[in-house]
Amino acid sequence: MSSFGSWYDEQKAAENGGASNSNWFSIDTDEVLPLFNAENLQGFSFENMKQTMEGQMPKKILGMGYQQRFKVFCALLFLSGLFFALAFFVGVPMLALKPQKFALSFTCGSITFMGSFGIMKGPYEHLISMDTL
């Protein structure tokens, strides 16, 4: 198997009318791009990668599998976005008259945002990652 560097040298030599200038620009692509070397990809398969990733994820959290947790995560994330939008578009203009509108909607947005990630990782792991315990 020829490398790109040798092919490039051959093309350059052909352009120069056969004058060999092979040391002008020579790159060993196996050294420059070791991840794309064919020997490194021998045991790679997407199925092995999927099994490895699933092995790292906990199977059940709060009685829900990964797909159910992801759906709840998306719903809570969307709900937090609505609360934040409500806080900024309704609460901020009314801040001088009724500050509790902003405070309540922003607090609910923050709780649902943190809750979405708590559902995804697990409540205990989420609290540990926030350094609260």
UniProtKB/TrEMBL annotation:
Localization per record: Membrane
4Fe-4S found in the keyword field: no
Listed PANTHER family: VESICLE TRANSPORT PROTEIN SFT2C, VESICLE TRANSPORT PROTEIN-RELATED
Lineage of origin: Eukaryota, Sar, Stramenopiles, Ochrophyta, Bacillariophyta
Transmembrane segments: 72-96, 102-120
Biological process (GO), any one: vesicle-mediated transport
Domain of life: Eukaryota
Protein name: Vesicle transport protein
Organism: Pseudo-nitzschia multistriata
Keyword annotations of the record: Membrane, Protein transport, Transmembrane, Transmembrane helix, Transport
Primary localisation category: membrane
Similarity comment: Belongs to the SFT2 family.
Function: May be involved in fusion of retrograde transport vesicles derived from an endocytic compartment with the Golgi complex.
